[in-house]
Amino acid sequence: MPNRREFFHRVAGAAAGAYVIGRGGAPSEAQAPARRQVSIAGKRIRVIDVHAHTNIPLGDVVKGTPFEKQAAANPGLEQRILAMDKQGVDLQALSINGFWWYEATDQGLARAICNAQNEGLAQWVKKYPDRFVAMASVPLQFPALAAEILQDAVTRLGARGVTLGGHVNGESLSLEKFDPFWAKAAEMGELVFMHPGGAENIIREGAWKGRGDLGNIIGNPLETTYFLTRLIFDGVFDRHPRLRVCGAHAGGYLPSYVMRTDVACEVRNNANCANKKRPKEYLRSQILIDTMVFSEEGLRHLVAEVGVNQIVYGTDNPFNWPVTVDLVLNAPFLNNAEREQILSGNLARLLRVTS
């Protein structure tokens, strides 16, 4: 699975470019801009970012295993904070992406990898408690173990939510075998942040070759769309009504074409739907999406389809996508309370962030 294995090298490279390049391409911290503080109608608000990637060096945990190359170095915390200050982001919910550890077939190794990641992030949060919270990593190939590790990460290490990929070695997470994990996340009220890896579970090999990095540009939102739709039609949200799942990259294509999804169970005789409500009801209650759209019309459409209560701020840091704080602040279709909800309030509630 090259997308997963290459992820950490890409993060390290992107971080290096995003954080420490000064004028003329030379590294420079002296040129760092002052911290941007975001206010709405004269009220200072705390901008919270749900979509922030990082990694934790694993060292001896993976030494001598097939995953030894995943023991990557992480970008410096101070340089990450410089980038946050420039963007106006006060707090990041840190998650580890790539999900290569789903391929571990030994439960002991899978436990050790996830524990090391969760403990490493907890140290980041301890050092900068006003700038970071951590989202737990779990070994979903062992659903009961994943539930156990989530419990530990939250109760022992203070994690605020959990992150996962769009599939587990090609298997849909809507299968009932994964219910022990879903039940634990719902029981604990933990936000689940899903991040895709290029739709390698959906598209035939070689389909993304060629120009445009299509595995990212089309594959990532496609995988998110498939993941969320499977959870709906296979009844996961009905089995776990307290479950809250955030889909990266604005929920993929689901909000853009939800009208077709919304009538599928009624007009398709072979749909065999397990969901008890219309799909759009889940999109307006149990599914959240981030602000990873880059136009006023794109944001307006998301608000119209899912509602302000279901939208949270995300940057995809440290990758250099457009920063959308001002997109939210300047949106003419939002009032001030709604702007604050998207940039701060919704995530503060879901991640248990206090001022």
Which stretches of 5+ consecutive residues score pLDDT under 50? Answer: 1-5, 11-30
Percentage of helical residues?
40-55%
Mean pLDDT score: 88
CATH topology: TIM Barrel
**Range of strand content:** 5-15%
Largest sheet: 6 strands, parallel
If you had to describe this structure to a student in words, what would you say it looks like?
With 355 residues, the chain is α/β, with parallel strands linked by helices. It has one domain (2-350): Metal-dependent hydrolases (TIM Barrel). Helix content is 42%, strand content 10%. Strands 6-7-8-9-10-11 form a six-stranded parallel beta sheet. The protein has a three-stranded parallel beta sheet with strand order 3-4-5. Helix 4 (143-155) runs parallel beside helix 5 (179-188). The longest helix is centred in the first third of the chain and has 21 residues, at 107-127. The protein is globular. Residues 1-5 and 11-30 have low confidence and may be disordered.
Provide a compact summary of the structure.
Helix content is 42%, strand content 10%. The chain is of the alpha/beta class and 355 residues long.
Structural descriptors:
single chain; 355 residues; alpha/beta; TIM Barrel; six-stranded parallel beta sheet; three-stranded parallel beta sheet; 42% helix; 10% strand
